[in-house]
Amino acid sequence: MNLKTKINLGFLAMLLLVLSIGGYAYYSLRQLDRSSRDVLKANLYSVNLGLTMLRSLDQLARQPLADTAGTARFVAALNAEARNVTEPGEQQVVDDLRDLTAQLKQHQQQTQRAATAGPPSPLGITAEPYTLGGLTYQMMALNTDALNRKTEAANQRADQANRNLLIFITLAGLLALALASSVPEAAVQPLRKLTAALDHATARDFSASIPQESHDEFGQVARAFNRMLSQLREYRTSTEAGLITERNRAASIVNTLDEGLLLLDENRHILLANPVLCELLGLPVEKLVGRPAATVRLENDLFQAMLKPLDAPNREAAVAEAPLLHIAQRGEEAFYHLAVQDLVSFNEATEKTEFVGHILTLRNVSDFKKLDQVKSNFLATVSHELKTPLSSINLNTKLLQDERLPADERQRVTGYIRQETQRLQRMVAELLDVSRLDAGAGIQLDVRPTSLADVVAYATATVQPQLADKQLRLDLQLPENLPEARADVEKTTWVLINLLANAIRYSPVGAALTVRAALAGAFVQVSVQDHGPGIAPEHHEKIFQRFAQLPDKSGYRGGSGLGLSIAREFITTQGGRLWVESELGSGSTFSFTLPVVA
């Protein structure tokens, strides 16, 4: 049963109650009215007729012979009474009255005829009116008793009707109260449930569904609302998952940035500080987020330096002129560049762009600083490397200009000039190779089957004067059945000469150099071992970077820092690998591989 039907039935019940009470009251009033009318018609009318008859009899008693009009009124009233007989015994009294009235009329006629003959007898004439009066009183008494009896019965019926009507009104009131409490409650209770569920939904609690206890309109509303809650839960779940994913993605991006990130609101309260910035400031995130920047700057010098540009009249100029922040990080020297950016947001309510805060970032520019330092060192090294052979060439050229110089001495000086010229050519060639690689031109290779024994022989012959100059012993360990490798002869020989030159440079006088070659799976491996000071493990990869130079006790030892970088490029391009195995104090072994000819 739907709610509309319930309400209609409630109103119909109320209407039936009202109609029932009204109908009963109308019926009771009609009964009382009918009773009163019957009493007035049957009894009270008879009493009034009796009074008329008595007045007529009184007149007759005063003028018994002459008052024929009184007799006529009496007869008229008696005839009316005869037509209104309603009580038991009343008809007999009326009949007696008629008989006496007839005698009275006859006597009056006789009296009128005898009046001419002599005086009338008073006793015979006056006895009949008094008899008529007694009968009239008897008739009135019958009607008066009936009137009293009927009035009492009417009063009893009225009391009974009042009691019944009171009972009906009481029952109707109780039923109306029941309907008034049940029907509105039937309408309001589901609304309360709906309101409570809506309050929970407004508070983002979509678990409070409405029980489906009926099939009426509220039951339909409950089912529709529960479906909406289910869809909202699914939407919220998907939305929360998306938001969590986006938040985690944003948090991971912020947390994995290699830059220190600080977010301030428009009142300079700290909203966000990523782990890099917390590490740089030496403060946990709990002591940063939510605190005023003005308080934190008093506790941390680096934070104070970061906020200085915000207080400058010309912030952009202050940021541009701000020096690099020098920070000691994990025992190493690091340089950070400060950047400041305003945050703005478009307010749809005011349709204006509003300032909402600042973003401050600390970018680690240590690598650029190091590159700048490497560039400076490279320029100084190249200048030194160019100056030394040029000075030697200039000096030896002046010696050649002296005609007194003996011929054998001239030959020796010419050899020095040739060596220094070759040194300059080698340096220029390295620079040209680097410029070609940086320009993306790549390395032009002439790969063909190559005997590495021939490459080793040519390379060792080339460095033989340097070996002799430092009295170094060369140990060659080459198997007779060494297979050919796919290699560029010129580039591979250049790599081996560079490795031998480095080994000679760092080997002590009189030490031994070992050059060995062996088959390593699908590759041929060539190694150059020296007994120099060795290289620390943390520098094994650094030495293959451009312009890299490692200091020793006597400082940097010549070289442009490009040889090993170019050598690795040459070997890698041919499909091989170049690496070093070394420890401090134990010498170094540089090895490279090349693929075997299939």
Q: Characteristics of this structure?
A:
598 residues, alpha+beta, five-stranded antiparallel beta sheet, 12 strands, 61% helix, rod-shaped, two-component regulatory system, ATP-binding, kinase, coiled coil, transferase
Mean pLDDT reading: 79
Task: State the distance separating the first and last CA atoms.
Answer: 92 Å
Considering DSSP H and I runs of 4 or more, what fraction of the residues is helical? 55-70%
Per DSSP, the total helix count is: 15
Order of helices and strands: HHHHHEEHHHHEEEHHEHHEEHEEHEE
Q: Strand tally, please?
A: 12
Percentage beta strand: 5-15%
Low-pLDDT stretches = 120-127, 553-558
User: If you compute it from the alpha carbons, what radius of gyration comes out, rounded to the nearest whole angstrom?
Assistant: 69 Å
Largest sheet: 5 strands, antiparallel
Overall geometry comes to: rod-shaped
Instruction: Indicate the structural class.
Output: alpha+beta
Major beta sheet, strand line-up: 2-1-5-4-3
Task: List the SSEs and their pairings.
Layout: H1 3-62, H2 68-82, H3 90-114, H4 122-202, H5 217-256, E1 260-265, E2 270-273, H6 275-281, H7 293-296, H8 301-311, H9 315-321, E3 325-329, E4 332-347, E5 352-364, H10 366-401, H11 407-438, E6 447-450, H12 452-462, H13 464-469, E7 473-477, E8 485-488, H14 489-506, E9 512-520, E10 523-529, H15 563-573, E11 577-582, E12 588-595
Parallel strand pairs: 7-9
Antiparallel strand pairs: 1-2, 1-5, 3-4, 4-5, 6-8, 9-10, 10-12, 11-12
Helix pairs in contact: 1-2, 1-4, 2-3, 3-4, 4-5, 8-9, 10-11, 12-14, 14-15
